[in-house]
Amino acid sequence: xxxxxxxxxxxxxxxxxxxxxxxxxxxxxxxxxxxxxxxxxxxxxxxxxxxxxxxxxxxxxxxxxxxxxxxxxxxxxxxxxxxxxxxxxxxxxxxxxxxxxxxxxxxxxxxxxxxxxxxxxxxxxxxxxxxxxxxxxxxxxxxxxxxxxxxxxxxxxxxxxxxxxxxxxxxxxxxxxxxxxxxxxxxxxxxxxxxxxxxxxxxxx
Length: 205
Prior knowledge:
Strand content: 15-25%
Largest sheet: 3 strands, antiparallel
Strand order of the largest sheet: 1-2-3
Structural class: alpha+beta
Shape: elongated
Helix content: 25-40%
Order of helices and strands: EEEHHEEHHEE
Number of strands: 7
Mean pLDDT: 76
């Protein structure tokens, strides 16, 4: 990368040009010089400092791992203890809760209201309705979810609200279903509120 500043002298003297890491050295030679001209000699001097600078530029410095909080340690240990692999290769794990799930309030009514709002929109747009139902059917066939057989859960449960994100300009998937774990229940708590937050596994850029 060339810098704006240069060092030069008029006439036939060499020119120094400032670049990003080093300086370049250029000099004008007569056009009559050929490869076999015995009166001119070219000297190439290897500069290891440039190679060293480039290596330092591209090296990734090790990032010191910050100490994890007690909650992050507990979450990581929970993941190690409660993660199992099924015969088909898929992994199953328990949600890492930091408080008793019984503290969650009722969520079914708000989830039903959201569902009815989605259905009203889909009735007006048949193509979106087809894509939405196709996505949900695929989730059911993959055993990511299953129908609730009874009106009320037999144990403390959280009815996960969902809504669609529609992108007309997408060439692959115009409809994407988003599950909202941050929706509050009747007492103001959400599923996300009672879950532990684990450590960040990727390094900061």
